[in-house]
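Anyone up for a design puzzle?
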């Protein structure tokens, strides 16, 4: 095999690996939505690193009178506790987390993804409402051949920081190709 052919095969293999990794990150994000909507805490926890940080911003006035608040979950066990919580379980089986589209940037064993998530909630037989519309930024790592969410930030539209998250997605996709 010539050096030129070998170089072309190496380049093709690298491109294929990046494409497979990008697809794996997309699937990881979709699996999260399916796991939480199914109420499967263990399945959701398996998608995160042990020391993950998951921040969810809320806008509006809470019961305590606060306006913009951020809830922080630290560690995969905290993600499981959220899924098992009475507040989350009360949404089921009538919730649908629908992520995407997302922009994914893969860099070796690390990846960043930014995009939208809509959560729909069914309140009656034919009464489906948009429960939450947010922008999310994920930082993922590949460990032992498996992609995991290491950090996630979710800001609801209208928050003071949501456009900053949008800009992270623009920064990761300057030419539309993963590197």
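Challenge accepted. My sequence:
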């Amino acid at each position: 095999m010539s050096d030129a052919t070998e170089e072309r095969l190496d380049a093709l293999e690298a491109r294929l690996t990046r494409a497979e990794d990008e697809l794996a990150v997309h699937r990881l994000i979709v699996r999260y939505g399916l796991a939480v909507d199914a109420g499967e805490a263990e399945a959701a926890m398996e998608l995160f690193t042990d020391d993950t940080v998951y921040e969810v911003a809320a806008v509006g006035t809470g019961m305590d009178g606060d306006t913009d608040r951020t809830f922080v979950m630290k560690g995969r066990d905290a993600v499981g506790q959220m899924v098992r919580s009475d507040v989350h379980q009360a949404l089921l089986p009538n919730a649908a987390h629908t992520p995407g589209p997302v922009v994914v940037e893969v860099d070796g064993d690390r990846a960043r993804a930014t995009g939208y998530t809509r959560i729909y909630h069914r309140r009656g037989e034919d009464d489906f409402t948009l429960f939450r519309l947010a922008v999310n930024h994920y930082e993922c790592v590949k460990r032992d051949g498996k992609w995991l969410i290491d950090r996630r930030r979710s800001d609801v539209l209208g928050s003071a920081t949501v456009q900053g998250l949008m800009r992270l997605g623009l920064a990761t996709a300057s030419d539309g190709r993963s590197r």
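A detail worth pointing out: The radius of gyration is 18 Å.
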